[in-house]
């Protein structure tokens, strides 16, 4: 009895000491974009042993993340949609991008294999506006001379929940079709003229998979991991490209970061012969008047680790790391706008 | 020694009962008042939160079918329509089925089967609604979109009214599927209530009916149902109340679309589903958030109306 109690007491003491050691790490909290959640989680796991920073990230959606950081309930917010400059000043935030992700077009047409169907931006907009209703419409047939397209009704699928992916997609459609821009516009949630909504990226993928004639849009990481039937798109240079990592990187590389304020770059429809046209950076929002300078420093240190050591992880998860020049610009912006050391 | 201990005990015992009763009465009264306060504060906060939307759109908010976050125009008509039609359709599916189950359990089933089937019904009620949503999306929706919907669409193609009710690309999601899943969810409540009240009918009534020569169905129709009408309606209203507010199960399968269409296979929205889908992307203080809160208030009003109707239906019966 006695030895057992002693052993238990020692064990408890050891546990408490270990807990104390763990508490010596700093914990940072973040909330927002579900699109970026996988990469932040992986960075958090990989970096905690070297940086001593533990990340607690809640993937509640871009809008909710912005709400949280405005109320300062978390240390940083994450959003797929860049926040407007006046909102940033009003809420005393600075914004910086972390990684880039592409949006794929997925289809389900009997007889059509992955990366076989060719589409253009205007045709895509017309499909989602409801003006093109069948797969053997002459505009689609003209783009795909060698392909046999059935007389099947097109079933457009969109995201039912508010989503940054919807913002990127509708922003691209707005660029490609003036009618879309005035009639529907772009946002995380829009009034879709036709089609059905599905909840989440998996909902869109599942619905397109089930319904013959379905078309939808999904994050590239999702489409790749689930082996969905993707379509080719015509880019700004006039070439039809497939949604591959090389195409995403070409698009990101061709972006001109020098002209934008607050890093709020729009990566849709970038020039370049091999660029993929639907792409977006995901952003992090940091207060420029942090209550706790240590927490702010820890957030910066975490993302700095991600920029210097996390590129391989990002590529494995099918995100595109930012160019090194942008990383340096972000570090300069931290030094300038956010008080406290890194 | 014992007497010395006994006297103080009895004296403190009397003191306890003098304190105990007022304290208990106060706690009970407080709980009652707390319920009223909670309800009142809920209604008030929904109304105040939704006031910007009511002020901006006026009475038109109830009848507008637009829901445009980009141009900041919101209307409740589609959500209210979706809520009402999915709930009513769910009852249309569930009530006959529930009646059948209750009838079977009380009259026809062998006694060794009654307990297991009864327990199975109650377990259905215990399943969390998000599980129903996931099951609905991953199991029911593919079956609907690949087998049932194309069959029904082809069957009614060409028949004037039915053709409009069952049309369009077979997405699998939509009002019909949502109503089916809601029906499965409200079935246990209605069936359990019906079964319990069918069992309360005094056996002498049924036996005298059998003695006069009634068949089982005639006994059910002329003796059991009239006797239990009040509670049956109550059970149905309970199911309707659950169906009106059901969120997660409907959100997965309703397909967020802001159009009113007679097509039962079309996507739509219910008040609960649109709040669940749009709330995370509504910035604090925005018109969208106010519209969602206004929708919550409207749902509350609908539930209240349903409750009032059910009380009105039952009032003469209750008095009798």
Q: Would you write up a description of this structure?
A:
- Chain A has 342 residues and is α/β, with parallel strands linked by helices.
- Helix content of chain A is 44%, strand content 19%.
- Chain A contains 14 helices and 12 strands.
- Chain A has helices at residues 2-23, 37-51, 62-70, 85-90, 121-129, 138-143, 164-176, 178-183, 200-210, 220-225, 245-253, 293-309, 311-316, 324-337, and strands at 26-32, 53-58, 76-79, 93-108, 118-119, 155-159, 196-198, 214-219, 232-234, 240-241, 279-287, 320-321.
- In chain A, the strands form 2 sheets. In chain A, strands 1, 2, 3, 4, 6, 7, 8, 11 and 12 form a 9-stranded mixed β-sheet that branches.
- Chain B has 320 residues and is mainly alpha-helical.
- In chain B, a hairpin with a 4-residue loop joins strand 1 and strand 2 (73-74).
- In chain B, 37% of the residues are buried.
- The chains are: A alpha/beta (342), B mainly alpha (320).
Key features?
heterodimer, A: 342 residues, alpha/beta, three-stranded mixed β-sheet, 44% helix, globular, B: 320 residues, mainly alpha, two-stranded antiparallel ribbon, 11 helices
Q: What helical percentage do the residues of chain B reach?
A: over 70%
The counted number of beta strands of chain B is: 2
Helix/strand/pairing category of chain B: mainly alpha
Span of the ends, CA to CA of chain B: 63 Å
Low-confidence blocks of residues of chain B:
none
Average pLDDT score of chain B:
87
What order do the strands of the largest sheet of chain B run in, or round the barrel if closed? 1-2
Produce the secondary structure layout.
The complex is a heterodimer of chains A (342) and B (320).
Chain A: H1 2-23, E1 26-32, H2 37-51, E2 53-58, H3 62-70, E3 76-79, H4 85-90, E4 93-108, E5 118-119, H5 121-129, H6 138-143, E6 155-159, H7 164-176, H8 178-183, E7 196-198, H9 200-210, E8 214-219, H10 220-225, E9 232-234, E10 240-241, H11 245-253, E11 279-287, H12 293-309, H13 311-316, E12 320-321, H14 324-337
Chain B: H1 2-57, E1 67-68, E2 73-74, H2 77-108, H3 111-126, H4 129-155, H5 160-165, H6 175-200, H7 203-212, H8 216-245, H9 248-253, H10 271-278, H11 287-319
